[in-house]
Amino acid sequence: MTRPTQPEPPALAAATAMFVEVLVVGIGTLTAAVLLLIALVGPTTTAKLAPLAGSSAAAGVGLAAAYALGILIDRAADAGLTPHRRRLRTRFFPSNTAYAQARLRLADFPVLAARADYARSRMRICRGWTLNTLALTLTADLAMLRYSFENRPLILGATTAFGAVTAYGFYRAWRALTVTGYRKLAEQTTIPTDSEPGPAQPQPSPVSP
Questions:
Q1: How far is 182 from 22, CA to CA, in rounded Å?
Q2: Is the alpha carbon torsion for 203, 207, 208, 209 positive or negative?
Q3: What is the distance between the alpha carbons of residues 171 and 173, in angstroms, rounded to a whole number?
Q4: How far is the C-alpha of 145 from the C-alpha of 140, rounded, in Å?
Q5: Residue 75 · residue 81 · CB < 8 Å
Q6: Which pLDDT belongs to residue 192?
Q7: Alpha helices (runs of H) in the chain, residue ranges in sequence order
Q8: Which stretches of the chain drop beneath a pLDDT of 70?
């Protein structure tokens, strides 16, 4: 008799989500690195190296590099935005201790904790792609400067404007998700205080038989 399929352990699900999240950020960073390499070596060398990009070895190295770069850019983005994130957190939590206690209380509610983890995952992706978009914009401009094609100034300008707007959009999304996460955490973990008793209400007098 076959045993029913067991649900995926929460720790395994969280680890899988973290791997995918880091990889999503790292792919953008790796793309920016490739564009920088193209800008440095020029069109001739790029054409010679292009066939190697389709090999299995290159795909494996690229996946590993994307994951490693994802960790690096995530830490860099976190370090750069930490002062701003702490200022946002003080709106809802007066100290690090109060925030840590709220996180511990939230762990008692698995459904709410899972939603908070999903929101933090989106926040970290937006945080990493804020830097990714800036890097992609810069390296794309540098790569295009090495090639001659029609309307290059117009395309360079459009690429730069689009990159700046997209980077700002990721930053605003990160900020909105961060503020919403802190607000919901504060609301969901606030321990209600006993309200003071109100004035006694007059009781109806018993009805005479």
A1: 22
A2: negative
A3: 5
A4: 9
A5: no
A6: 57
A7: 10-49, 56-89, 96-106, 110-145, 152-189
A8: 1-14, 191-209
